[in-house]
Amino acid sequence: MIRVTPRSEGKVIGVQASEKLTDDDYTETFIPALQKVIDEYGGVRVLFYMDDSFTGWEPAALLDDAKFGLKNAKAFEKVAIVGGPDWVGWSVNLFKPFFEGEIRVFDGDELDEAWGWIQ
Description:
By secondary structure, the protein is an alpha/beta fold. The protein contains 4 helices and 7 strands. The strands form 2 sheets. The chain has a 5-stranded mixed sheet, with helices on both faces. It has a two-stranded parallel ribbon with strand order 3-5. The longest helix has 19 residues, at 23-41. The two termini are 24 Å apart. The model has no long low-confidence stretch (mean pLDDT 92).
């Protein structure tokens, strides 16, 4: 499950990912929220927080994430990845060259620091 957090404002979108993310999480919630901000502001800053119940992505959700991210790579000004398993941080570092914006990985207990950085 994914939900947009109440701290989202302007060109900053914060989301909380719980349990396993599905294709519907992306097509019905996350991608429309991102697209709305990109359309309105021309760019977006994303805080992606994986809580303790997060278990990963369904393959279709990973594909949605990759397609949207690569198609809109120039629109991502900053991305904060918070929490999650170690392999997520390693994967994020592999994709850094494809984005012009800044990407930073934070430990799960650094959520407030991540919010400060993304804003």
